[in-house]
Specification:
Mean pLDDT: 91
Radius of gyration: 22 Å
CATH architecture of the largest domain: Roll
Number of domains: 2
CATH superfamily of the largest domain: Hypothetical protein
Distance between the termini: 50 Å
Shape: elongated
């Protein structure tokens, strides 16, 4: 079992640590040309302050990584980016970028999306392990070593004392005797970005790829018991998303696009959508990421106007 320990931007930490009940945050990186492959979704991500304050002060569960235009990162996560507004976010990013960007450039940043984040009270900051040596923004750290297990146990104790009663790390172990993480549900923002990336940033129906008009649609809404999971999502152009939510269009269990006769009856229009009738939508290659047929059937039976 491993974690990743990263050095945090002080302003980012100060801004977010005073905000309770956050379900997700964006631990951004100023450059837009380096991926993050150190963790798999569900693994533990920790952050520490800059030296000489070598303390671990918070963390969360790694949910997803994406390169995003700064405008989309702000639109999706807003203050959960660690800044009060887009202007201030851009100022903080610029402070860490090697190349100065024009004020109107919608440059990309690396977004490490963390679920169920936590921030430790100052009196309960955890000293960084003595064998942790950082030469860059962060590194993976073995939690099965002697010092790693000590860190894990201390973290468990601190988390139990927090008002939120977070349980990121289970008391149980796996078959190899290693502690297991408790993986939380994705937040709304991470769900959106995960669906965008899973569908390769193109509408499943129209193949539109203009990012500002693409939206992550829930097949079964959260209000009806649906969850923020990729097999409950479709990436749709905003107009198609609206019609999908209102029942004028649906996707059947064979992944074919269907248009209701009510669209013509109610609006005396809709020729563009009827041209897509019966078209097979594009779905991800991995079965686990494809739309859940049970959810599609629910939408067709419950929402679709027929």
């Amino acid at each position: 079992m491993k974690t990743y320990i990263a050095v945090t931007d002080d302003d980012w930490y100060a801004f977010l640590s005073g905000r309770p009940d956050l379900d997700e945050i964006n631990f951004w990186r100023p450059g837009g040309n380096a991926s993050f492959r150190a963790l798999k979704p569900g693994e533990l991500f920790l952050f520490k302050l800059h030296a000489p304050r070598n303390y671990i002060v918070g963390g969360g569960i790694f949910g997803h990584f994406s390169m995003l235009p700064v405008s989309l990162a702000w639109e999706t996560f807003r203050e959960r980016n660690g800044a009060p507004d887009l202007k201030e976010l851009r100022r903080r990013i610029a402070r860490h970028r090697t190349a100065r960007a024009p004020s109107d450039e919608d440059y990309s940043i690396g977004c490490i999306l963390l679920e169920q984040p936590f921030f430790l009270p100052r009196g309960q900051w955890i000293p960084a392990p003595e064998d942790l040596i950082l030469y860059g923004p962060g590194k993976t750290y073995d939690l099965t070593s002697e010092s790693g297990r000590a860190l894990l146990e201390r973290l468990r104790e601190v988390l139990k004392s927090l008002p939120q009663k977070l349980t990121l790390i289970a008391e149980d172990t796996d078959l190899h005797g290693e502690p297991m993480l408790v993986v939380p549900r994705l937040g709304q923002g991470t769900f959106r970005i995960l669906v965008i990336d899973t569908y390769q940033r193109r509408c499943a129906v129209t193949r539109e790829k203009v990012l500002p008009v693409l939206e992550a649609a829930h097949i079964k809404p959260v209000s009806e018991g649906g969850q923020h999971q990729v097999d409950n999502g479709l990436l749709l152009r905003s107009d198609v998303h609206t019609l999908f939510d209102r029942g004028y269009v649906t996707v059947d269990a064979d992944f074919q696009f269907r248009v209701s006769r009510r669209l013509k009856a109610d609006f005396d229009n809709g020729e563009h959508y009827f041209q897509l009738q019966g078209k097979k939508i594009w779905v991800p290659s991995h079965v686990r990421d494809q739309p859940n047929r049970e959810f599609l059937e629910w939408h067709a039976d419950t929402v679709f106007l027929g």
